[in-house]
């Protein structure tokens, strides 16, 4: 969900986890002139077509091929990407964004999926405090942003994708602790 705390959570995790890199979906938005406009005059930023999703997939796949070369390591790796299976070092990639699980080419790449949710009123309140470029037009949240969130969330639920839903109204520290511990448990499973 927009303004759910995705970026804050990803950045805090990057600072806490060793050998952790974050790819932000927002870095793959098309320029404004390439984003379609609907009949109400709303720029359709909350749709997959507003993003260079193939470039995002390529970035993720490139990282997977050689994580040690792209991550700002928090300690010296024992070896290079030529022989990563022989190391005890874990490399962690967090991909942060709002339409990640609705794009089929990415779904085969995830070890874990987290989805922050917010109720309508809280989401709208948070969104109203942010400044976007281009700025939100009057009625944009109700006319485009929220309906698209509901549409894409419904698709996830229909497809029964394995996702951990997180309540974005919970304290940041609680969410951070939960996700951090879940990642640590996942790392332990992968090493067994």
TrEMBL record:
Pathway as given in its UniProt record: Cofactor biosynthesis; NAD(+) biosynthesis
Recorded GO MF terms: ATP binding; metal ion binding; nicotinate riboside kinase activity; ribosylnicotinamide kinase activity
Entry superkingdom: Eukaryota
Reactions accelerated catalytically: beta-D-ribosylnicotinate + ATP = nicotinate beta-D-ribonucleotide + ADP + H(+); beta-nicotinamide D-riboside + ATP = beta-nicotinamide D-ribonucleotide + ADP + H(+)
GO biological-process terms attached to the record: NAD+ metabolic process; pyridine nucleotide biosynthetic process
Keyword set, alphabetical order: ATP-binding, Kinase, Magnesium, Metal-binding, Nucleotide-binding, Pyridine nucleotide biosynthesis, Transferase
Any one cellular-component term (Gene Ontology): cytosol
InterPro entries: P-loop_NTPase
Keyword flag Transferase: yes
UniProt KW Kinase keyword: yes
Protein family (similarity comment): Belongs to the uridine kinase family. NRK subfamily.
Protein name: NRK1 kinase
């Amino acid at each position: 969900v927009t303004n759910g705390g995705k970026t804050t959570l990803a950045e805090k995790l990057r600072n806490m986890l060793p050998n952790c890199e974050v790819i932000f979906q927002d870095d793959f938005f098309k320029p404004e002139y390439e984003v379609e406009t609907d009949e109400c005059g709303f720029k359709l930023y909350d749709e997959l077509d507003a993003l260079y999703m193939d470039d995002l997939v390529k970035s993720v796949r490139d990282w997977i091929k050689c994580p040690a070369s792209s991550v700002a390591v928090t300690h010296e790796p024992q070896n290079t990407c030529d022989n990563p299976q022989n190391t005890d070092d874990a490399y962690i990639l967090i991909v942060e964004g709002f339409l990640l699980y609705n794009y089929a080419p990415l779904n085969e790449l995830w070890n874990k999926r987290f989805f922050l949710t917010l109720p309508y009123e809280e989401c709208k309140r948070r969104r109203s405090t942010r400044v976007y470029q281009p700025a939100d037009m009057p009625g944009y949240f109700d006319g485009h942003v929220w309906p698209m969130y509901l549409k894409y969330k419904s698709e996830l639920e229909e497809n029964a994708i394995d996702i951990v839903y997180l309540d974005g109204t919970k304290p940041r520290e609680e969410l951070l602790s939960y996700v951090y511990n879940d990642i640590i448990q996942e790392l332990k499973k992968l090493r067994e």
